[in-house]
Amino acid sequence: MKEWHFYDKVFRRWAVLHIGSLEEFKAEMKASKYTKVDELRDAKGMCVELTYENSDQYCCYLWLKEYESATLVHEITHLVMMQLDEVGVPISMDNTEVFAFYCEYWWTEINRVRRKYPNGRSPKDARI
Question: Model pTM?
Answer without folding.
Answer: 0.93
